[in-house]
Amino acid sequence: xxxxxxxxxxxxxxxxxxxxxxxxxxxxxxAIESTDGEIAVGANMENACYRLGVCAELAALTAAQQAFGxxxxxxxxxAGGDGSGESLAGxxxxxxxxxxxxxxxxxxxxxxxxxxxxxANGAGTELETRRISELIPQGFGPAxxxxxx
Length: 149
What we know:
alpha+beta, 27% helix
């Protein structure tokens, strides 16, 4: 765990405040930094038909693709917790879910680098940094499709 402030984590925490999470009341924000220092953000957006909800990481990956392209992603920050106040709160460090790990792995293949993911608690006081290869070992990627005709 690391408690040194990280500007990318602060952007993720701020993004979480824009989440639409009336059902779980769990706000998640994601900030993605490009190799040139540009930032794209996203937040979770729930839906009464639960499976139609969108994770913060997928929203941010879409924004990053539009802003600077997946090939230029350098690192990703994720934070989540109680977004009902003026700032995000919470003690548990939030990591991407399995589906988001798969989406980040795809972006890592496009970028040609083992992307760094900084996971934070809602309060921003606890940080864990891992590579996508650690979060989804033996992940399924484009190379797995090489036998397709």
